[in-house]
Design a protein that fits this description.
Strand content: 25-35%
Structural class: alpha+beta
Largest sheet: 5 strands, mixed
Number of strands: 7
Helix content: 25-40%
Number of helices: 3
Distance between the termini: 20 Å
Strand order of the largest sheet: 1-4-5-6-7
Radius of gyration: 14 Å
Length: 125
């Protein structure tokens, strides 16, 4: 499955979750529901995937975790905040770099229309 097809499925599942729950809940609630929907849709998903930092020859377990990793290629970072800001974008870009994934979705569920809370990010290699 290509990255665009995967992100399309992810966004469809996220919209379903947002339509059912609406804004205002904790990130953890959206993460669990989106995880469920993605699995139900047939995608391979890892939740809270540990992400080590490799510096020169040292591998450090710094506590970084990807909210959801889909098909081992798309990083999803879930937020429930008033507004996405630059630090959220930087976080996803860092996860993309460390995981060697190219595509990331930053999804803020604390919006009236979910399409206004989705940011697709690309890290080139």
């Amino acid at each position: 499955m290509k990255e665009n097809e995967i992100t399309e499925k992810i966004i469809g599942c996220a919209i379903k979750v947002h339509s059912n729950l609406g804004p205002g809940l904790l990130e953890s609630a959206y993460k669990e529901c989106l995880f469920y929907e993605l699995i139900k849709s047939g995608l391979v998903v890892e939740k809270e995937k540990p992400l080590p930092l490799i510096y020169e020859e040292i591998k450090m377990e710094c506590g970084y975790r990807i909210d959801l990793l889909v098909e081992n290629s798309v990083v999803i970072e879930i937020k429930s905040v008033d507004a996405i800001n630059d630090i959220h974008v930087a976080q996803v870009l860092t996860y993309l770099k460390l995981s060697k994934c190219r595509i990331g979705l930053l999804i803020n569920f604390n919006v009236v229309k979910l399409k206004d809370g989705i940011k697709r990010l690309i890290h080139g290699y």
